[in-house]
Structure formats: C-alpha cells, structure tokens
Amino acid sequence: MSKRNKILKFLIKPPMWMCITVWAAGVASLVGSITLYYLGMGLKMWALPVYLVAVVFGVLSVYAVLTVVGVPERVKDKPKVREFFRSYNTRAFVYATCSVIFNLLYVAFGILIAVLEHSEWLGALVGYHIFLVLPRVEVLVTARLHGRKDDRNAEERQLRAYSNCGIVLVMLALAIIPVIRLTINDDNSYNYFIGAVAYVTGIAAYTFIKMGIAVYNMKKVRKQDDMSLIAVKNISFSDALISLFALQAMMFKELNAKKNMFVKVMNPLLGGVIVAAILAIGLYMLIGGYKRLKAMPEANDGADKVHDGQS
C-alpha cells in the first residue's frame, strides 16, 4: 500500500485512541476558553491561541464522531467522491465552491461585527469580499460549461472568464485602498468583546492556512492548461494577501503600537506592496487573456483555410 493510501485510510478510519485523544483535547481547550473568559482574562492577547486550539479541536472532534459511525467509509466509494480524490481539477473547483459559500458567510459575520462595534474599518475590510465572490461564480459556471462534451467554445469561455477575473482583481486592488488608508490614519478602531476576539482568532488561523494553500496551489496550477483553474488560484492568492494585511493591522492595533515607527512604516509598506501585487496580477490576466482571445479567430481561420485546401 502506498504512503498516500495509508494516510487516506488513517483519515477515513483513525484508531479509537486517536479519537479519544481528540475529544479530550477538545473538551480541555473548551473548558480553558470558558475559564479564561469568566476569570476576566479572555480578552488578553495571549489567550488567542487557547481559542484557536478550541476551534481546531472542536472541528476535529466532530469529524472523529463521523469516523466512529462510519460516514467517511460509506461515502469514499461513491463515484463523485472517487473523482474528487483522483482529479486535481475537480478538487480545485470544489474548493472554489466552498470559498464562495465561506466568503458569503464571512461577509455576513463581518458586517454583523462591524455594526456591533460601530467600526467603519471592519465594514470596509469585509466589503472587498464581494469582489472575490463574483469572479469565482463566473469561473464555476464556465468550468461547468467546459465539462460538456458538446461545448466547442470551451477554450474561448475559459479565456473570457480568465480575462474578466483580471478586471475584477484590478477593481479589488482599488477597493482595498480605503481599508489601508483607514489603517494608516489609525481609524481601524473597534472595542473588543468575545465576538471580536473570536473574529481575530479566526482571521489568524484562516490567514496562515489560506496563505500556505495559496502558495502551494500557485506553484502546482502552473502545470495545468486550464485557464479557469489558473484564474481561481490567482483569486485565492490575492485573497490571502489581503488577509495577511488585515491580520497585521489587527495585531498592531491590539498591541497598541501605533506610535512605534516600525508600525508607521510597515502598514503603508505592506499595504502598498499588496495593492501593487494584486493590480499586477489583474492586469496580467486581463491583457494576456484578451491577447489570446484576439489570436483565436486568426488561428481558427488558418485551420479552416488548411482544411479547405486539403479538400
């Protein structure tokens, strides 16, 4: 049995001692989080890792229950599940669909926190996610059309989606400028309560996971010739960059380091680099996509002429 299959088997049906360990860690971290909160120490910066561990083991505990009742074993042999594990493209678009759902939930949660905290900064911070939902939806529709065997314009559809995503990324780069400006002007204010602590903890965990996955996928997707898949990965990478800036701004704010010269330099510096990077990616996709679209009719005409000559 290959190493990959051994890992997959372990994940589908982990030993009982592993499940018990996960449940014990989940209960312990949850009790620790509640204890810190009621002792009045829940808003301290060092308490964030405790909340993070509680969230992680909470999710793992739910999955452990599913493995015990045999849910993963029953679904692993279904055709769509097997295709998911065999095909990188299938996995990529499933993740993209999950990203659309997550972004919508993130926007709803972020707006709720922003209203409760009366924070324009938090509102602006979640607003840019609209520019992440729209291109993913378009790419998913395009990918679905590409999956039809009778779709003769699949390549053209992919290129149009790729180019249009470039336009949205350019708009995204402009949309995050107000967020950066509010941060530089020290207007990224909010009052911490347990919801905001959970928000920052979620941002920290999500940022590091998202950045790692985005960098890995950016390298892997270059081997693919599916332009819609490349567009999805470029969007995810841009999303990770913005989350990195948001995390830095939140951490500096919590540490009350606004008078520190390093902070005064780092916020505008990182913000400017991220805007420039997303703008460059968007322009590259927009210009490159339309150049290839423009060349397509010429290629098709040439092929038709060769075909007519042979006839």
Offer a few descriptive terms:
single chain, 311 residues, mainly alpha, 13 helices, 0% strand, disordered C terminus
How does this structure look, described?
- The protein is 83% helix and 0% strand.
- It has 311 residues and is mainly alpha-helical.
- Helix 9 (154-175) runs parallel beside helix 12 (227-254).
- It is flat.
SSE arrangement:
Blueprint: H1 3-12, H2 16-38, H3 48-68, H4 71-75, H5 79-86, H6 88-117, H7 120-127, H8 130-146, H9 154-175, H10 177-184, H11 194-221, H12 227-254, H13 261-310
Helix pairs in contact: 2-3, 3-11, 5-6, 6-7, 6-8, 7-10, 8-9, 8-12, 9-12, 9-13, 10-13, 11-12, 12-13
Structural class: mainly alpha
Distance between the first and last residues' Cα: 54 Å
Number of helices: 13
Question: Can you tell me the residue ranges where pLDDT is under 50 for at least 5 consecutive residues?
Answer: 302-311
List SSEs in N-to-C order: HHHHHHHHHHHHH
Q: Rg, please?
A: 23 Å
Strand content: under 5%
Query: What is the approximate shape?
Result: flat
Report mean pLDDT, rounded to a whole number: 75
How many strand elements? 0
Helix amount: over 70%
